[in-house]
Amino acid sequence: xxxxxxxxxxxxxxxxxxxxxxxxxxxxxxxxxxxxxxxxxxxxxxxxxxxxxxxxxxxxxxxxxxxxxxxxxxxxxxxxxxxxxxxxxxxxxxxxxxxxxxxxxx
Length: 106
Hints:
Order of helices and strands: HHHHH
Low-confidence stretches: none
Number of strands: 0
Radius of gyration: 19 Å
Strand content: under 5%
Mean pLDDT: 93
């Protein structure tokens, strides 16, 4: 069956983690050419707005904590999904869960 018990919503959790990570990665970098074109002459009037915001260190730390927590949540949701859908038995559920959680630590 390959899952489906949670309507594959574990991948939405993964998407949120990736979006938060992207927010961290883009800090202080110039916005894309596409985005700048979409805003017309706005950036000519406000050149400081051409750059993505840089968040305070305390906020960045919490964003990083959120990314980690969401990645863990995705693994749990995915493994439980497969278990409840009959794709994993008890042994394979526990083994795969352990393996995927360990991969996150690397």
